[in-house]
């Protein structure tokens, strides 16, 4: 799979998004631009509204008000690859079938070769015929990652995509994602400050009730950053302080 088979993806524009569940306002009038071809990492305390925001961008949740558009004016929804917190693998399809599910749903001919290459890259070569029930949680998450990468979309939305992985596998999968998602507009949720600083071009913290996006933190230099990169270490300390203040 090429790192990016189209020009850098456009900005995503979040325009005055409001979300209410009953009387509870999760966020109100939230606006932001997610820079095109860049990875924005979204952090914040549990329950603040990160997944809801991601689902709105994915078109899976309707905001109470506001809208999400792409800077090129074309519709967003059919250009999105979404990887949720739950792997959403279909239990009756084998691993390769799950990776190629999108093509099957769209009535397109699946590309077995590309699915196989991606499964190899996520460390699951030889498991193409396994059923999801025969896999560990971390393996299932890597199948979901392969499926997301297989989709080859300009907008990629990922909700804690590496949470079930041991730290060595997690680091390898972060490297793979950074390589294969280069040039796409990515919004990635994580609770892991190191992961945020390895992968993010920009960090955004969502906090408060209703939630607001705090001042964004840019990190210079290409991703994935090595864990001892000086730019990473400087921002990680600042980020930790901010997250601890928000959680207090
Ligand atoms: N369909 C729903 N109906 C009612 N309330 C909901 C619904 N979905 C989410 N919520 C509430 O909205 C708030 C934000 O949830 P959300 O899952 O977006 O948080 P989060 O920041 O992603 O949390 P976490 O980090 O734990 O995944 C929570 O209080 C949650 O209970």
From TrEMBL:
SMART domains for the chain: AAA
Pfam families given in the database record: ABC_tran (PF00005)
Keyword Nucleotide-binding found: yes
Residue ranges occupied by any ABC transporter domain in the UniProt entry: 12-233
Keyword Nucleotide-binding included in the entry's annotation: yes
Keywords of the record: ATP-binding, Nucleotide-binding, Transport
InterPro entries noted in UniProt: AAA+_ATPase, ABC_transporter-like_ATP-bd, ABC_transporter-like_CS, ABC_transporter_ATP-bind, P-loop_NTPase
Protein name: ABC transporter ATP-binding protein
GO molecular function ontology, one term from the record: ATP binding
PROSITE patterns: ABC_TRANSPORTER_1, ABC_TRANSPORTER_2
Lineage: Bacteria, Pseudomonadati, Pseudomonadota, Alphaproteobacteria, Acetobacterales
Domain of life: Bacteria
The family this protein is said to belong to: Belongs to the ABC transporter superfamily.
